[in-house]
Amino acid sequence: MTERLAEISARIDGIRQLGAVVNAMRGIAAARAQQARKQLAAVDGYAAGIAAAIGAVLPLIAVQSDARRRIPAKTALVLFCAEQGFAGAYSERVLTFIAAALPTSEVFLIGTRGLMAMAELGRTPDWSMALPSHSTGIPTMAGHVCDALYARIGTGAIDRLEAVFSLWHPGQPILIERLTLFPFDRSAVPKAKPAAPPMMDMAPAALIDALTADYMHAQICRAGLHAFAAENEARMQAMAAARTQVERQLASLQARQRAVRQEEITEEVIELAAGETASKARV
Length: 283
What we know:
Blueprint: H1 2-57, E1 74-80, H2 90-97, E2 105-110, H3 112-120, E3 127-129, H4 138-154, E4 158-167, E5 175-182, H5 204-282
């Protein structure tokens, strides 16, 4: 009986330690998600400023024909998957969402866990890198992604670029968004009508090219931050479920511990009573 009680006590200690780890992981995920959401506001403001600049310059250049895109090339997909574990089926949801387009697209995959999930499907991305462990590294990551994409766009190997990433909003399940990044939809930018033409030290066409490159970088940053926040929200949900399970197991073990203790006390009382009876019988 003593060994059983010691075993149960050891399991309780182990469950409590696991609960502490789960709480710590949940707290870290919450802090990272909150930081990413704050940075999203800055990125959205930056992208809006670039869009306004594009809108101010567009009226100064002539409309160009898209005849050069008569020959179809290939679509490139930038997929934002999970970087770390304990996020449930986060990466699998992204890959399932875009499964129909994977065989005919070049895949630029962000996230180590996503790389593993894709390998399970028997597919290797054309290019991949890790998602930064902190949201402050997202802009640098976006720069590397843009460099790889421009190298392919410059050769004419791809003529369409889309980003696929997860979105999280309070009180709603995690959703997946598919955003077109290239070719740049100039019609989506409102044409500004300033009182005076903007001051420029570049040719309007060259300035538009530079601004659209900055705009794409901003959009990849935005997608990366949304994915970073959503992954950590998914981890928080997984840790909340784990915490519930820990509490259930702890309650069950504590109830069993009380029952075993009661059985032990009962056996000791019975042994004492039996000894007392035997002693009286000998007298």
